[in-house]
Design a protein that fits this description.
It contains 12 helices and 12 strands. It is of the alpha/beta class. It has 2 domains: 111 residues, NAD(P)-binding Rossmann-like Domain (Rossmann fold); 176 residues, NAD(P)-binding Rossmann-like Domain (Rossmann fold, 3-Layer(aba) Sandwich), CATH 3.40.50.720. Strands 8-7-6-9-10-11-12 form a 7-stranded parallel β-sheet. Strands 2-1-3-4-5 form a 5-stranded parallel β-sheet, with helices on both faces. α9 links the parallel β9 and β10.
């Protein structure tokens, strides 16, 4: 019989149809159906498909005694308890590599939108204000100092793109990387002090929560800008709002937020911020490739074959 799968996060329609052809797919129970789900469905669930921002809580895992695999449709696994997975013996997979280019592209796009004030320029034209005068000067993107927090797949892809801008590139990781020509800084504060634009591309974990704090933002300085395409938890959002309002940094480009999809009104009100609704991987091509990789991991697991992209 097909394995029972709990789908916590949507895939593209084609991938959901493929999932339903291979497995018996269940979706989260509504408020009036939870008792029936726990009694009739939960004991049969062998696999869970979820998103990087959704993950799976330990309370739900506790209801799934037959759980064998959690397949994440995303690269981040901070919303899945990996220690519990190891203890319980179920596998965890994600979808790395296939989304690297799109996320890196968005990081550069946010940088360009900030430096050239493109959101404000768009509003300026639409409001008919060009008829009354020129748009204020912006800041050039070329020849600047770019700092990258985290130099994994996505961080390296961002750096490769930034090389074309002819500036300086530096990075911060736990230990230096031997095969890159970029300057290394052992702390985020030192990296920020040496950067005009600080780009956050590190993994989220308890040790990286609020790693970009008020001290880092002060080191970035009143002409510096922050770009975050990693996870909202890496940036102290309250400290960021204060720094933006007080002019202690020049601006921020944000694709992720601490309590997304809730975005602080203070950020929405600011004109020196570019906001995106966590769309780093949101292209048809990449979401399709991610869904295919989710299916490949599930197929491999239930066929007893090696997993294409295991986390645990």
């Amino acid at each position: 019989m097909p394995a029972d799968i709990l789908l916590l996060s949507t895939l593209l329609p084609a991938q959901e149809r493929a999932l339903e052809q291979r497995f018996t797919v269940h979706r989260p129970a509504g408020n009036g159906e939870k008792a029936a789900f726990q009694r009739d469905v939960a004991p049969r669930i062998r696999g869970v498909v979820t998103g990087g921002s959704t993950g799976i809580g330990n309370d739900l895992v506790a209801q799934l005694p037959a759980l064998e695999i959690v397949a994440i449709n995303g690269v981040g696994f901070d919303k899945v308890d990996l220690d519990l997975a190891r203890a319980r013996g179920y596998r965890v997979t994600n979808t790395p590599d296939v989304l690297t280019d799109d996320v890196a592209d968005l990081a550069v796009a946010l940088m360009l939108m900030l430096s050239r004030r493109l959101v404000s320029a768009d509003r300026f034209v639409r409001a008919g204000r060009w008829l009354n005068g020129e748009f204020p000067l912006a800041t050039r993107a070329s020849g600047r100092r770019y700092g990258i927090l985290g130099l994994g797949r996505i961080g390296r892809a961002i750096a490769a793109r930034l090389e074309g801008f002819g500036g300086e590139i530096a990075y911060c990781t736990r230990t230096p990387v031997s095969d890159v020509p970029y300057a290394y800084h052992p702390t985020v504060t030192e990296l920020a002090a040496a950067s005009d634009v600080l780009i956050v591309a590190a993994n989220a974990s308890p040790s990286t929560r609020h790693i970009v704090d008020a001290a880092v933002l002060d080191a970035l300085g009143p002409t510096g800008a922050l770009v975050n395409i990693a996870r909202g938890s890496l940036v102290d959002e309250h400290a960021l709002i204060d720094a933006l309002i007080e002019g202690r940094i020049a601006g921020a480009g944000l694709d992720v937020f601490e309590a997304e999809p809730k975005v602080p009104q203070a950020l929405i009100n600011l004109s020196n911020v570019v906001l995106a609704p966590h769309v780093g991987s949101a292209t048809a091509e990449t979401r399709g490739a991610m869904g295919d990789l989710v299916l490949a991991n599930l197929d491999a697991h239930f066929a007893g074959e090696p997993l294409p992209t295991p986390v645990v």
